Amino acid sequence: MIVLDTGAILPRRGGIFGALSDAFWRHPKLLVFLMLTPPVLWFGIIYLGSLLALLLQSFYSLDEFSGLVVPEFTLSTYAQLFRPSNFDIIVRTVLMAAAVTLASGIVAFPIAYMAARYAKGKWKALFYLGVMLPLWSSYLVKVYAWKLILAKEGILNWVFESLRLTPLLDAFLSIPVIGGNSLSVSYTGTFLVFLYIWLPYMILPTQAALERVPVNLIDASGDLGATPFQTFWHVIFPLALPGLVAGSIFTFSLTLGDYIIPNIVGSSRQIIGQAVYAQQGSAGNIPLAAAFTVVPIVIMGLYLWMAKRLGAFDAL
User: Fold this and answer.
1) In this structure, what DSSP letter does residue 314 have?
2) Rounded Cα gap, residues 117 and 240, in angstroms
3) CB atoms within 10 A of CB 271
4) In sequence order, which ranges of the chain are alpha helices (DSSP H)?
5) Stated pTM of the model
6) Measuring CA to CA, how many Å separate 114 from each of 17, 62, 127, 210?
7) Tell me: the pLDDT tens digits for 215-236?
8) Which domains are seen in the chain, by residue range?
């Protein structure tokens, strides 16, 4: 015999809030819909809407006589990207982003490996503090600090002078493209600042990936007679590669779009961020600025597609 407990079913609550609570309890999908609607609208209208507006502007052109934007569909603006001066900007930016990403991986890997394998307790806390602390300070303060460090009167030149290595530094600065009057007005200086600013974004995903490498696989590799290098190349590196690729997403994309660091530290040769700023500012060529902006979007789209195939998103 089944006895129904009528008191187990609560009566409907009175008032507006009670009615809403009952409605959300009976229709949980309604609550999810109402909670997601504001952020989805914000993402769709403000974020994607601005990108679509930018993409639309890139198909317009600038009237050379009047200086006004002609709102007619054309590919002539994209054709301007292949002019030698503009194409050099794109190549220069991609090479800088690739160099910063590669150097970040080389510097970050041993740091992340030591933190993942040997740092315990308070030492791991100190590791996270040391990596995260630069991110808590002002971006501009760090860049201007590096400008002072790399200047002719800066501490780096003082160190070279104290060690009587100034001729070596002068010989390096005399190298075309990467050199200059001083490190603060050279591509080498720009590279060093990029490397410092974005390095934490490479260390943390790499460290997370290395922590997930099973220790028994490393021990088994040694038991089977593998040398330390063979263990690293065939066991540790393949398993840590998704973390490196995940970190490279940050370093590569942030270098592609940055224009503040090259404006403060670097030579007069522009990269994409500076070109966009100049074209939409003093030049007033909004279509060309938009076309320049589409270039990193396309590059990062391809890069993310390759990163996904390498399992990088699992290490984020």
Assistant:
1) G
2) 13
3) 26
4) 15-26, 28-41, 49-58, 76-80, 84-117, 122-136, 139-150, 155-162, 166-173, 187-211, 215-223, 228-231, 237-257, 260-264, 272-280, 286-309
5) 0.83
6) 55, 55, 10, 10
7) 888 888 888 888 888 888 888 9
8) 15-58 (no CATH), 82-309 (1.10.3720.10)
